[in-house]
Amino acid sequence: MPSATSTTASAPASGSASAPPRASSRASSKTDTSTRFTPRETLVLVVLCASQFLVALDFSVLNVALPVLGPDLGLGEAGLQWAVTAFALPTGSFLLLFGRLGDQLGRRRTFLAGLALFTVASVIAATGVNAALFLAGRALQGLGAAALVPTGMALITTSFAEGPKRTKALSINGSLMALGFTVGMVLGGVLTDTLGWRSTMGLLGVGGVLVLLAAPRLLTESWGERTRLDVPGALAVTGGLFGIVYGLSTAAEEGFTRPDVLIALLAGVALLAVFIRVEARSPEPLLPLWMLRRPNVAFGNLAGLATVSMMTAVVFLMTLYLQDLLGVTALVTGLIFGVQGLASIAGGALAPRLARRMGTSRTLALGLLGQAVLTAALLGIGPDSGVWLVVVGLALASALHLVAVVSYGVTATSGLADEDQGRATSLVTSAMQVGMALGIPLLSALSVGWAGTLREGGVSADEATLGGIRLGVGADVVVLLAVGALVALTLGRRRTVPQGAGS
After folding, report:
1. Which of 199, 293, 468, 492 has the most CB atoms at less than 10 Å from its CB?
2. pTM score > 0.90 for this model?
3. Contact 297, 271 (CB under 8 A)
4. Distance between CA atoms of 493 and 124, rounded to whole angstroms?
5. Residue 77 DSSP symbol
6. Rounded Cα–Cα distance for residues 256 and 450 (Å)
């Protein structure tokens, strides 16, 4: 999934946006036609890509360990998703703020601070003796990752001259992030079966230490445009997202009628409304609202939110199905998701070719609708069989998912002026991270809630769990079909192929 970052970052603007008057952009860097890295540039790229690799690894390394760490830490079935959400929520919520802080305080400085926090937090998560300490470590990991992702990408673009060399660096970074997600699935199973689930967090800590030893000597400082920080906007969007995710997550275990669930959901919606109002009045908003009035930006990011949230959620549901119902080991589960990851890489490689022939908007619609159809095949899982259906169906759905991810990134950044590309790519990355934070609790709430209703009606525990998982998969399909149809109707007639889409 993370490969979209490289695609969007390297896609140049094809025109200027119709926006309010803005400060003129600084002169662009000189184009470098060479693609050969110097030894120092190679080391810089290794360090920066390694940091992004660790973040991608963190998104997937715990997925197959969830049924094991749950009983160990006293987390119930509904609480398991917090092991993932506690990391993804701060990552998505603070991404825009830390990207702007990097511009203000220095990208190298912010990057190193985020890396140090990520490393320490990994140790806390690995050694946490109870659920509270473990989840605190995961949340701090997410906060560190929120600083690492935007500043790491900015350091890549400032360390390599615009042109083929920068494009090559971004392509390598994106490929390694996609590989990190795949490797995380496999390593999660291997480490959980051999050394225990805590070793997955320990691995991230060791990786963080290694990058920390090399980064200060290789990275040089850079700054962006000095502007006023939109602190009210950052607080409003963070609080709004937290309220919604908390409400959905608690509803998965306790139902939607609890007062704190209703209060959290209403407060979350209200804070997001406040965020929109703040952004409309802020002279330097985190999210310029005029940008969302462009159909390709609005619907492109909606598509990204849908494809990422639904794929993350279905992976969570299939993990529970394989291990809780079929008794598949963590190692085998990791290998199954390894096949999914390889299919994702193939889909990412196919996407530019499809975009060159069909246009990015049509390719985006194809990816969403294809992901929906192939996810629907998972409704055929049974109480005693379905491993091969998960292997094939999930792998093919993931390939189309990556087609959608790459296409939404290019679609959502097309036609914007050069000075707006930074915010546009931050918005694209935020849609991905927020999707990871919201998809699991939303479908988990539906799945667990329906399973509880079935058990109250006299259905056996296994059949009720399967029924809940099927409802979650069905909701996944409906969301993808709806958004895919919306993209096809609004953007499908535009055959936009940004420069480099076919490379």
Report:
1. 468
2. no
3. no
4. 51
5. T
6. 12
Q: What is each CA distance from 253 to 134, 257, 324, in whole angstroms?
A: 19, 11, 17
Cα angle 434, 437, 439 (rounded to 5 degrees) comes to: 100
Could you say which residues of the chain have pLDDT below 50?
A: 1-32, 497-503
One-letter amino acid for residue 450 of the chain: W
- CB neighbour list of residue 386: distance below 8 Å, 6 or more residues apart: 321, 326, 380
User: And the tokens for 60?
Assistant: 């997937």
Burial class (CB in 10 A: 0-12, 13-18, 19+), 264: buried
With 0-12 / 13-18 / 19 or more C-beta atoms within 10 angstroms meaning exposed / middle / buried, residue 453 is middle
Residue 460 vs residues 437, 456, 457: alpha-carbon distances, Å: 31, 9, 9
Phi, then psi, of 91 in degrees rounded to 5: -60, -50
pLDDT in tens, 135-154: 999 999 999 998 988 888 77
CA distance 472 to 248: 14
User: Token pair 């860097």 is at which residue?
Assistant: 29
What is the distance between the alpha carbons of residues 34 and 16, in angstroms, rounded to a whole number? Answer: 28
Which residues contact residue 153 at a Cβ distance below 8 angstroms, ignoring those fewer than 6 apart? 5, 9, 52, 173, 425, 429
Encoded tokens for 193: 């079966």
Q: Which long-range contacts (CB under 8 A, 24 or more apart) does 133-140 make?
A: 134/69, 134/73, 134/83, 135/82, 135/83, 135/86, 137/201, 138/82, 138/83, 138/86, 138/87, 139/86, 139/87, 139/89, 139/90
pLDDT the model gives residue 141:
95
Q: What residue type is assigned to position 142 of the chain?
A: G
* Whether 398 contacts 340, CB under 8 Å: yes
CB-based burial label for 486 (10 Å; 0-12, 13-18, 19+): middle
Within a 13 Å sphere around the CA of 267, how many CA atoms are in the beta-carbon half?
A: 14
Per-residue H/E/C for 281-347: HCCCCCCCHHHHCCHHHHHHHHHHHHHHHHHHHHHHHHHHHHHHHCCCCHHHHHHHHHHHHHHHHHH
**Alpha-carbon span 219 to 215, nearest angstrom:** 6
